């Protein structure tokens, strides 16, 4: 008789996998070094930030491609595949001395690796804990958010000692080994048996979901909510340097990572108290208020500006934590993995829009991000209006 795996061991492996994948969020540390290394080629932030945008735009595509196969073939194969793609993409970036190669390696290959491994590791963790889904989902999501907190300072140390390109190679090999080894313990969870008197999970397919206007309204709300966070995460080091918010840009990246991670837990608790949709409105309010603080009080060592940026990162974590539940609530749990993959394409759009918006407007305004901040404030206010409209639609239905 086959021994039942220890589910806590599987959860630990999933957290370790997602923590490794979270290295992708440390982009602003890598970007600063890449710009310095390629100054002679005239690289600018608007060009290099596109690699980060492509990478996280590929994450939902990877989830859509690989996600439906995880249940039939098991999570182990897709976490392993994700580790190979992620590590290979990171390693190959160590040879990316042209922008097209950077877009291919850090953008497409690494991003698809995150999509494959993150979707599978998060899915297997929650399925092994049907009695503690919130705990399992929260811990695995927190692992992803904490990645830059650990990888960022490590990357900075390696860059200082061996240069950015050798750092990509070392991290690529190390993270490939960590993720692939973690995958080896990720056994498929036993099929859930419906409790007495209950029926099997039901829900709409992604094709049915995509035909509904409510999907596209929530999809747009998700884009409006995630764009500011992606701009902050993709440009954290540059924003800190521009306004001299803290003495060390890596410390600022760590503060943003902490806020992003804590937001996934904090807004979940708020949601339990006041409901999902009022929470979304509160998060939009935090984004608008946070960026207003940063825009109005930016300057050397400004505590209010730092607090403002952290409010945006806090809310970004909340949007990522809220929309899986919103998707399940509207279209059922039977196909929630695939359905959320489609909803998550909104995150992909935000991954392109946020960093590009910040980088291009900063470049056009001599490094000043104020115009980008005000545009995102407008997006947050529009998000509040659309969420109120959605709530009114539900009341009339």
From TrEMBL:
Its main location: membrane. The keyword Transport applies. It is a multi-pass membrane protein. Residues 1-395 form the Major facilitator superfamily (MFS) profile domain. Keywords: Membrane, Transmembrane, Transmembrane helix, Transport. InterPro entries: MFS, MFS_dom, MFS_trans_sf, Proton-linked_MCT. This is Putative MFS-type transporter YhjX. The gene is yhjX.
